[in-house]
Amino acid sequence: HESCNLDSINLANMVADDQVDYQKLGETVSKCVHFLDNVVDVNRYPLPEIEEKTKQNRKIGLGVMGFADMLLKLDIPYSSPEALELAEKVMKYIDTSAYQASVHIAEQRGAFPNFSKSIYGQKSPDVPVRNATRTTIAPTGTISIIAGCSSGVEPLFAVSYVRRVMDNDEFFEVNPVFEEIARENGFYTPELIKKISYSGSVQGIEEIPQKYRRVFETAHDIVPKTHIGIQAAFQKSTNNAVSKTINFSNSATIDDVKEAFMQAYKLRCKGVTIY
Q1: Dist. CA 78–CA 228, nearest whole Å
Q2: pTM of the predicted model, to two decimals?
Q3: Which residues have CB under 8 Å from 146's CB, separation 6+?
Q4: Position 1 pLDDT exceeds 50
Q5: 64 to each of 14, 69, 94, 114, 194, how far by Cα in Å?
Q6: Pairing, β 8-10 against β 4-5
Q7: 8-state DSSP, 116
Q8: pLDDT tens-digit readout, 22-46
């Protein structure tokens, strides 16, 4: 499906006419849950014990990628309250849609075998659920490259960067959303892309209008508190854990790290990765 690679929905493809296309998102979630439930059956398991446990609970982990690109298309800075609000709203919609899809499949194929022992079977025994968990957020490092979008729920690592291949040949990679905007607004030049690639950030580059510098934030332009806030917003409606890197400057102190871990704990994140 054009909007889903393996187990992650490309949120960059869910924007139409400057707004989130929730109908398309819901349809994509339904197809992905169906696909991932099939995977539980067709998998080749290394041990019979693993196969038994997997099929007793039929856990799947549908996630997202391209969140940063979605924000860029909507002109929303990653570190804004609007981004937090959107993260929470989009993931809640995905989680609810995934649950509904799992119930629909269970009506046809039956609930997961451990259903009666689970929180679902105890709370609503008359509503079968096919999968004990439906959502998770993986790093999507490789598949986001294949899909041509930002990884997971991370911000852009760089607006432009140098890719060295083969005999040290250099290619200047640039975020496609930035390139499109820069060309449309007449400030795109190869020299500008090369200049951005030195740091990856567009902050302080006068050739770029302020409103675009505000939107095109990169990982190191964003403070740790904001990184954790986005992770927590997604975690609220994610059954399993959320993969997210919390970027610090090299001048970070032990107290800065402690504060980040405590914030993640208080906001009910299931784990935290700092870099």
Answers
A1: 12
A2: 0.92
A3: 5
A4: no
A5: 11, 12, 9, 27, 30
A6: antiparallel
A7: G
A8: 999 999 999 999 999 999 999 999 9
CB atoms within 10 A of CB 271: 11
Task: Check if the beta carbon of residue 203 is closer than 8 Å to that of residue 213.
Answer: yes
The answer to whether 39 touches 4, Cβ cutoff 8 Å, is no
Looking at the DSSP bridge assignments, the partners of residue 169 are 165
Query: Which residues have CB under 8 Å from 188's CB, separation 6+?
Result: 179, 182
Report whether pLDDT(11) > 80. yes
SS3 106: helix
CA–CA gap between residue 78 and residue 114 (Å, rounded): 40
Are residues 159 and 218 in contact, defined by beta-carbon separation less than 8 angstroms?
A: yes
The pLDDT tens digits of the residues spanning 89-133 come to 999 999 999 999 999 999 999 999 999 999 999 999 999 999 999
Contact 101, 62 (CB under 8 A): no
Beta-sheet strands, E only, within the chain: 4-5, 8-10, 15-16, 19-20, 63-65, 160-165, 169-174, 245-246, 273-274
